[in-house]
Every structure is written in structure tokens, then in C-alpha cells.
Amino acid sequence: MRIFISLIVLATLVIGLILFVFIAEDQPLDELAETGIQSMELKNGMKVIVQENRRAPVLVTQVWYKVGGSYEHDGITGISHVLEHMMFKGTEDTPAGKFSEIIAAHGGKENAFTSKDYTAYFQRISNDHLELCLSLEADRMRNLLLGEDDFLKEVEVVKEERRLRTDDKPTALTYERFNAVAFVNNPYRKPIIGWMEDLDTMKIDDLREWYQTWYAPNNATLVVVGDVKAKQVFALAKEYFGPLKPAEIPQLKPRKEVQQHGIKRVQVKVPAKVPFLVMGYKVPVLNTTENSDDVYALELLSGLLDGGNSSRFSKNLVRGSQIASSVGAGYSLYALHDSLFTISALPSNGISMDDLEAAIIAQITALQDELPTEDELARVKAQVVASSVFEQDSSFYQAMKIGIMETVGLGWQTKDEYVDRINAVTAEQVQRVARKYFVEDHLTVAELIPQSTEVKLSTSGNMNAGEAHAN
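RE: above sequence
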């Protein structure tokens, strides 16, 4: 939830933000500020990024791999997520199940997640167990035992996961089909957890090849945030990850989406209690456009539509006309490929889906026809900036932002630009991107049409989430 706060207080908070410093491997660490981001690259190509934080004697370690659902080709969808599960099945030095047991025995917590553009593994633990975490992660980076029996069991676990999170969740199933229809050649059309048909035919050899191809030091980034000394982290990273041999990482070709030439519609008819609407417009992200002003304006536009009780959707559609029982907007500027600006909504009782869609379009048209007020912009900027500032209280979130931006190719330094770029957005820019991107010919609409609960749900679908988790 975004937090309301005066711009005066925000200014004070922003001034106090942590200074980020970039260093090369051969720079003396003792010349750096006590707090700040420090970075180096090992000789094998692995990146190591550290942010010192003395608030508590704890740390977060995260290992990020540049591979996820968008890297997969047809026929092996879901393989990145299956491999994530298998990463807990052990090495010669750490047998299956022992990784989690060891971390828990030392008072820590660990898990992993697979997204469209990356897979990450993390631990949260006291700061005296840094070496333990790095040694365990380095071991499974190149020494994983991929046994046939473990693989067959884990694939069944993933199938059950998709049944629970997608096949038996009508809104998630609708999102899956929405993405599959919205994109033609953009890899985001494929589900992260994989099509059930691909999971059925996946082989252990597929998994072994995927592991050997992508899980290498020169395709990974280690992020450590917490009560640590960067010099110590770099020394341990060299000790444990430094000896690992790099791999030849495939160079992916650009995946620019083909031009859409008219509105797309899809209906999903499954057992459900209430109808559901998803709408999406094709939009760029920081990685895919030279005009970065557009993406920050889209970010602010998202807040205008769905930024708390004072946002246009809440004020006009939920509390005002009461056409929708809920409605929200979503956009992420930190992606690898062009994405979607999505709007999802549940109609109020007695409201048709046509009326709900028309009401949402009317809110978009209003933004295209009239400039947002200065009060609106100031409110949303205060919310967005305050959220960004207070997220600094979380070591885990700080590490997440660093890892995401580094892994999608933006560089972790980009995160420091966010507040200034949001504050620089004008009303005219918001109106311009609304006119430029919210075009009917670039729109996809998915509608969930509830069926009787006696109708058996088919066994295909995917997660309505940006991530798939192992545990």
C-alpha cells in the first residue's frame, strides 16, 4: 500500500537516502563510504554487489540467474521453475533436503522464486553465517545432482502446484489465457509454471541441459545486504565462487512483439462464482525504449488510476458509480521485454461486463481528453516517492531491487534515478502516453464467464503471478 506523506517530509527523507558507490575490482575498498553499494566482478564473470546496513546484526544473501520463463522455447515451458525445485535436491557435499535443514539449524530462512526474466535463491540469517550461505550456494551452482527419481517426483509436485494455483483458480486461469492471446511472439505469452502438456513430456535430460547452460558464474549475480563488510563479502565470494568455471551463455535475439492490428478478445468459461475482466494495452519498458520519459509517465499514470482511495478507479467506479466491486491497474517498468499495462476488475452485482468495460474505457478517455490536475499529480507523486523511500527499511527489498535491475540489464544504479524521474513527470506527459499507448487496436480483453460448479475444470492453465516459488 502506498503511504500518504507531505512533500516536505519526503524531501527530508530523500536527502537521507543511502549513497550508492560503484567500484571496480582493483579499487581499494577502504576508501569507500561506510554505507553504500559496492560492486565487483570476479574473473569468471560473476558479479558481486554489497550494500552495508548496520541496523541489525542480520543479512540477506541472494543469487540471481539470468534465466526464467521468457528464456524458454515451446515444448519445455516450466523448465526454469522445475529446476528451481531441483536445486534443493542436493550435491555430493550437501545431500537432498540438507540445504534447508542447515539454514534452519542456524536460525535462518531460505527460499527461491522463478519469474519471467530471472530465477533467484535467497537466505535471511544472522550476519555471522555469511560464509555458510555462500559456500552452500557456490556448491549447488555447478555441482547439483540431478537424479531421475528426484526429477520425476518433483515434476509431479509442480503439476500439483499448477493445479492449485491456476487450474482451480478461475482468475489465474483467465490471466494465463489473457497473456497467451495478448502476445504473438513476445515470450511473455508463455506461463512461468509451464503448460501442463509440456510438464507431462519433460525429461531429465532437458533439465540437465538447462542447468548446464544457464547456471554458471558468468550468468549470475550475488547480492548481499545487511550488517556485513563489503571487503569480507568480496573475499568470501572469491574463495567460493571464484574457482567455478564460466560457461558459454547463449546470446538471445531481440524478441520485439509484432504489430497488433485490432482489439483481441478471449472468453474463459470455467466453474466460478463471479465474472472477472482483464484488459491490457501494449506498452514499452525501460529496456525497450529510447524515450524513458514514457515509462515513468506510465508508472505515474498507474498511480492516478489505482493509487489508493483517492485514485480515479476507486473514487469513480467503486465508491462513485459503484459499477465495480474492485478495480486495479498494474504496470512494471523493470522488465526485459515489452509488457502490458493491465487493468483488472470485478463487476458489482447486476452490472454487465459490457458496462464495466465501457466505464473503464471512459476513465481512460478522460485522461486522454483532459490534463490531470496538479493536486492529483502531487498526491500520486507523494505516494510513489514515499513508498520508494520507506522500502529502504527492508534489507530484503533493497536486495531485490538491486538484483532485478542488474539481472534484466538495467544496472543497479538505475534504482537511484526513480524518485527524481517520477517527480519530473508532467501532466502533459501523462496525457501524451495515455493517448499514445491506450489505443483500441493495441488492446486485449479477457472475460471470465462463470459456469456451473458441476462442470469439470480442464487441466490446463498457469499461475496468476509474476513468480513461481519452490517451497
